[in-house]
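User: quick one, sequence for these C-alpha cells?
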C-alpha cells in the first residue's frame, strides 16, 4: 500500500469534525454524544446500531450512509 496506506490510516483516525461539509452539525453532535469521534469509530458501527441511537433520524442516517459510501469510493480509487 505504501503511502496510500498511510493516507488511509490518517483518514480513519481523523475526527469527524473535519467533515463539517459532509455531515451536519446536528449529526456530528449526536455522533460525538454517543462516543463516535473518528471516521474509524463511525465505520465500525452498523446501520442498525446507528438507527437505534437517540437523535439520529432518517435524515441523519441517510447523510451518514452517503458519507460512508463516498469514503468507500475514495478508498477504492487508491
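Assistant:
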Amino acid at each position: 500500500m505504501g503511502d496510500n496506506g498511510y493516507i488511509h490510516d490518517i483518514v480513519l483516525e481523523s475526527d469527524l469534525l473535519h467533515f463539517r461539509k459532509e455531515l451536519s452539525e446536528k449529526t456530528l453532535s449526536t455522533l460525538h454524544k454517543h462516543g463516535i469521534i473518528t471516521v474509524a469509530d463511525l465505520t465500525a458501527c452498523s446501520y442498525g446500531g446507528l438507527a437505534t441511537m437517540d437523535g439520529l433520524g432518517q435524515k441523519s442516517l441517510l447523510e451518514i450512509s452517503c458519507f460512508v459510501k463516498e469514503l468507500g469510493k475514495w478508498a477504492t480509487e487508491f
